[in-house]
Give the backbone structure.
Amino acid sequence: MGALSHLQIVEIGSAAAASYCARLFADFGASVQKIEPPQGDPLRHTAPYTPKGQSAWFAFLNFNKSSVTLDPNDESASLRLTELIGDCDILIDGRDIDAADRPAFDLAALKPSNPGLIHIEASAAFHAVPRDRQAFCESQPATDARRAQS
C-alpha cells in the first residue's frame, strides 16, 4: 500500500508528459486507469523494442497502471468515460496528440458532480498563456523565449 493508494486517477491522451505524470502517481500507490483507443496507445508502437517485441518506452511510462479500452465510435464510450472521470480524484489530460481517438466528454459538466476533481493538463505542446494569468506561471522567461522563436 503506497502513500497515494487512496487516489483514483484517470489518464487520457498519448502525450509522454501525461503518461510520465500518471506513472509517478502509480509508483506511489495511486490507482491509475489509462484510457486507450481500440488500436492501443500510439506509444505501444514506438521504438526501442524489447527482445519480445514490446515497446520499452510504453512499458516504462505505463508501469503500475491498468488500461481501459474505449472506442470513440461507440455511442456508450462517452458515457463510460464520463463515469470514470466522475469517480476519480485526478484527471491527467494529454490529449494534444491524437485527441480524435478518444471519446468526447464535457469537463465543465462534470465539475458540479465532482467539485474536487483535479484536472492536470500535461502535454508536450506549448499553449499560450493569457497575459492576465502569466503572473501565475513559473516559467515566464521560457514562455517569452518560445514566443520570440515563433
Remarks:
- The first helix runs from residue 16 to 27.
- The radius of gyration is 17 Å.
- The helical segments are 16-27, 56-61, 77-86, 107-110, 140-149.
